[in-house]
């Protein structure tokens, strides 16, 4: 047994132990006959760095995996990274730009080769960061969504979905990023508030038609005037009396001369503006749906932009030449289509000015009404997203969603917390076709080839496609697949599918998926769709959705706010164990985690307390236990700590079964800090006989095992330093949760703890000098209490600083009275403190506390304060009110003790 250093230094042990575990294959010990347990890690982007969301997500996963490994299971934690199409291509393009080059200077194959070079040199930094967090992943079988085996699975799924009629090519609106010249997913769109305008224009009715009031035009309002060059209709509500006479009549668009109809559609809100809405189905998602309802085919909808969001001619050829080539709006100081459209409509007298009154009451006209607009941006490009009508590949998500919904309904997939089921069903029941093609070079190139007539031939290889096409010349689709398409295969593609291996059959379905709620639709639901379609079974039996990690004030973290917390910085400062324990203790189902560095520091102190307890035990001759079974014990204090240990094992088992990470962390925390360190060690100081040494060593071993999933580094270090071990802690055995509890012993020690705690509280509240020893007089004690006082008298004297004990004596002068169960314990204070002065102090303090309590209570009972004040101000007032209420109660109790 090695003597423990005086201080605990996490940095000195974390790297050493992680390297030892990984080098010795301890993350995946050979357990062929054991019950399998499988979980897959959401593959982080190969370009990514560890953020606090990763820290939470991976900590929770590692806790579960280490727990199941300790329970003897064949625990597999699948690990890998995602090729991250847009993000990775952007990183490499930036490197080329810095060298004065650009992507198009290279052939596609040469550029892709450069991306692979970048990955080999710089990609995957996050994998080393996950190691720093302590993640016990199966690194020996690390996967990458672009590796050869996984790519084979991706191509096969695409082809088979097409063969089954579940994947097709269609013309629809997509989120188009003009910077990347690619469609992007909803997850990659970031909506921001921008200062924009609300323009109003008069659209002339054609053929002399007028409204009921005689107007020869309809006023429409828009935040995107440039799109009028591709307008195809005006929509009015079918019940709006103002427009009944013109439904089906035609509008003459002033700039293009295009004629189109007034259509009835409930999308138009009679209460909003004029109640009439211009419809540009090729450049607005809502308008696209209105157009379809009006009988327009997607192929006939007009598109006025190219891939760079510059104006191109529409299919009907009606956009005037002066607009062609313009950007959609002002760019680099040059007016775009928006500015010129507004100017021309104004010249034509068709711009309705926005009129307001200035300070002098005079009317002032402006071209538009200033509005705050919710504007979509590409999260990586920072460019305004353009809804763009284009040909893309789509998955029939509606059909694929049926089986997962049924699996959730019948319990084959359990969603935790259950409250997320409603959100899941709402999205799945209204799911839209899934656009899976991206206009990039980096990614899985779509296995489709086109002939000169535009017919597509989908096959796993070019040879197979050519055999379908005969002797026609074919060109492969240059697009790649959405990265979510490949990651949707993660639960089975990482296990060797489409090969039917023992690994696949043993570990699919996975047991659990832990995921942030924010990717429930983008990843989780799609895994369920693909897994059930290709494996015929659910991808995982349980789906746990955790919240976000927010700043201390509850705000979402963002670089612009300057409130982003670096988890690696916290690991450097406090150690990985402290950060992990914080994440577990704060993870309460259905709630976000508020980052609190002070609490992380507190859990660093918890690790130090554990370390110091180990040093105390070692100094008193306590060594490692030789058995999972509790030692034979006769002393009440030893039988009590055994029972408390077993109760903690049971509490953690229950918490883990329910995925209550906070409950599990808090159970072991309070057992270690309160029962073991604060009470058991104190109660046994100076009386470490052989029985107590054996029990203390056993209990401490159980602590190390129970705490290991939460704090793996310090527990492994202490496991090795406190005695000879047959194996590392990471592959030890979970404690036995069976023990015949001695209720008498448990009741006796609980009684002693309550009595000592009450004595210490009274001494503190009444300002009794710490070194003063007091007499104690006991009244109304039953025989059982007298027996306990006899057996625990020495401990009571030492811990409560009691110098003598008597029964039933009269007490002269002031005294503190403590009631525990049926007995009253009196502490004479005459000559120990100035009782009159102490009463005066307590009365003044009570009056002040009650005054503050009542003042705060008055504010909180005022609806104006609760409803109008900032939420953080209301929360602070409630916190202060609770604190002053407790303080007043404590001071009153202290006064009552003095009589």
From TrEMBL:
ATP binds at residue 559. Residues 638-776 form the Methionyl/Valyl/Leucyl/Isoleucyl-tRNA synthetase anticodon-binding domain. Catalyzes the attachment of valine to tRNA(Val). As ValRS can inadvertently accommodate and process structurally similar amino acids such as threonine, to avoid such errors, it has a 'posttransfer' editing activity that hydrolyzes mischarged Thr-tRNA(Val) in a tRNA-dependent manner. PANTHER family: VALINE--TRNA LIGASE, CHLOROPLASTIC_MITOCHONDRIAL 2, VALYL-TRNA SYNTHETASES. A motif ('HIGH' region) lies at residues 44-54. GO terms for molecular function: aminoacyl-tRNA deacylase activity; ATP binding; valine-tRNA ligase activity. It comes from the Bacteria. This is Valine--tRNA ligase. The lineage of its organism: Bacteria, Pseudomonadati, Pseudomonadota, Alphaproteobacteria, Sphingomonadales. Its EC number is 6.1.1.9. Residues 834-899 form the Valyl-tRNA synthetase tRNA-binding arm domain. Pfam families: Anticodon_1 (PF08264), tRNA-synt_1 (PF00133), Val_tRNA-synt_C (PF10458).
């Amino acid at each position: 047994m090695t003597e423990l250093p005086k201080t605990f230094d996490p940095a000195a042990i974390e790297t050493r132990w992680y390297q030892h575990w990984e080098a010795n294959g301890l993350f995946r010990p050979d357990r062929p006959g054991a019950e399998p347990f499988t979980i897959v890690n959401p593959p982080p982007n190969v370009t990514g760095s560890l953020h606090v969301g990763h820290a939470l997500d991976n900590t929770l996963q590692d806790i579960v995996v280490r727990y199941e490994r300790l329970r003897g299971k064949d625990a597999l934690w699948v690990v890998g990274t995602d090729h991250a199409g847009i993000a990775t291509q952007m990183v490499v393009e930036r490197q080329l730009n810095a060298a004065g080059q650009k992507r198009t200077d290279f052939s596609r194959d040469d550029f892709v080769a450069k991306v692979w070079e970048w990955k080999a040199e710089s990609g995957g930094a996050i994998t080393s960061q996950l190691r720093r967090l302590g993640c016990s992943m199966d690194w020996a079988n690390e996967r990458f969504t672009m590796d050869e085996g996984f790519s084979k699975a991706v191509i096969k799924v695409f082809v088979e979905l097409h063969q089954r009629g579940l994947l097709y090519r269609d013309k629809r609106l997509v989120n188009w990023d003009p910077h990347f010249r690619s469609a992007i997913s909803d997850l990659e769109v970031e909506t921001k508030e921008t200062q924009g305008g609300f323009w109003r224009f008069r659209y002339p009715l054609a053929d002399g038609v007028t409204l009921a009031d005689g107007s020869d035009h309809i006023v429409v309002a828009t935040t995107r005037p440039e799109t009028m060059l591709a307008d195809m209709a005006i929509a009015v509500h079918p019940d709006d009396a103002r427009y009944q006479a013109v439904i089906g009549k035609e509008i003459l668009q002033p700039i293009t001369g295009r004629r189109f109809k007034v259509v009835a559609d409930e999308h138009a809100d009679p209460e909003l503006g004029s109640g009439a809405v211009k419809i540009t189905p090729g450049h607005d998602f809502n308008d696209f749906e209105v157009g379809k309802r009006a009988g327009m085919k997607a192929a006939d909808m007009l598109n006025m932009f190219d891939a760079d969001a510059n104006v191109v001619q529409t299919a009907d050829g009606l956009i005037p030449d002066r607009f062609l080539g313009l950007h959609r709006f002002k760019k680099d100081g040059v007016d775009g289509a928006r500015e010129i459209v507004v100017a021309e409509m104004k010249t034509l007298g068709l711009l309705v000015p926005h009129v307001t009154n200035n300070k002098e009451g005079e009317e002032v006209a402006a071209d538009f009404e200033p509005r705050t607009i919710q504007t979509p941006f590409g999260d990586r490009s920072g460019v305004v997203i353009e809804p763009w009508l284009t040909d893309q590949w789509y998955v029939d998500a509606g059909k694929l969603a049926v089986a997962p919904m049924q699996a959730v309904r019948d319990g084959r997939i359990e969603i935790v917390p259950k409250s997320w089921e409603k959100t899941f069903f709402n999205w799945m029941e209204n799911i839209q076709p899934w656009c899976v093609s991206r206009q990039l070079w980096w990614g899985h190139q779509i296995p489709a080839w086109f002939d000169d007539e535009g017919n597509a031939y989908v096959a796993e290889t070019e040879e197979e496609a050519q055999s379908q096409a005969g002797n026609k010349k074919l060109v492969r689709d240059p697009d790649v697949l959405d990265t979510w398409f490949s990651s949707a295969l993660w639960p089975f593609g990482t296990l060797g599918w489409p090969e039917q291996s023992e690994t696949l059959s043993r570990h699919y379905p996975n047991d659990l998926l832990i995921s942030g709620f924010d990717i429930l639709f983008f990843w989780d639901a799609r895994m369920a769709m693909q897994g059930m379609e290709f494996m015929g079974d659910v991808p995982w039996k349980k789906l746990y959705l955790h919240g976000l990690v927010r700043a201390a004030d509850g705000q979402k973290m963002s670089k612009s706010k300057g409130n982003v917390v670096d988890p690696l910085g916290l690991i450097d400062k406090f150690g990985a164990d402290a950060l992990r324990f914080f994440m577990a203790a704060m993870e309460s189902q259905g709630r976000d985690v508020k980052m609190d560095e002070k609490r992380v520091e507190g859990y660093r102190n918890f690790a130090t307390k554990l370390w110091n307890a180990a040093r105390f035990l070692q100094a008193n001759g306590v060594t490692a236990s030789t058995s999972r079974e509790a030692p034979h014990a006769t002393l009440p204090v030893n039988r009590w700590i055994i029972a408390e240990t077993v109760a903690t094992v049971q509490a953690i088992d229950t918490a883990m079964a329910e995925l209550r990470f906070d409950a599990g962390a808090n159970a072991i925390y309070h057992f270690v800090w309160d029962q073991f360190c604060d009470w058991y060690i104190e109660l046994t100081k100076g009386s470490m006989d052989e029985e107590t040494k054996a029990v203390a060593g056993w209990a401490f071993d159980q602590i190390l095992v129970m705490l290991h999933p939460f704090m793996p580094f310090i527990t492994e270090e202490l496991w090795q330093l406190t005695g000879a071990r047959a194996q590392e802690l990471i592959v030890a055995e979970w404690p036995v949760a069976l023990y015949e509890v001695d209720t008498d012993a448990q009741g006796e020690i609980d009684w002693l703890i309550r009595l000592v705690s009450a004595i210490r509280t009274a001494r503190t509240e009444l300002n009794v000098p710490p070194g003063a020893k007091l007499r104690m007089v006991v009244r109304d004690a039953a025989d059982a209490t007298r027996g306990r006082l006899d057996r625990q008298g020495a401990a009571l004297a030492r811990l409560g600083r009691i110098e003598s004990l008597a029964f039933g004596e009269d007490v002269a002068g002031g005294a503190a009275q403590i009631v525990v169960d049926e007995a009253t314990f009196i502490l004479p204070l005459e000559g120990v403190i100035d009782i009159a002065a102490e009463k005066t102090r307590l009365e003044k303090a009570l009056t002040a506390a009650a005054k503050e309590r009542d003042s705060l209570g008055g504010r909180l009972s005022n609806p104006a304060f609760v409803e109008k004040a900032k939420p953080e101000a209301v929360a602070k007032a409630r916190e202060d009110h609770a604190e002053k209420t407790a303080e007043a109660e404590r001071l009153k109790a202290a006064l009552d003790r003095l009589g």
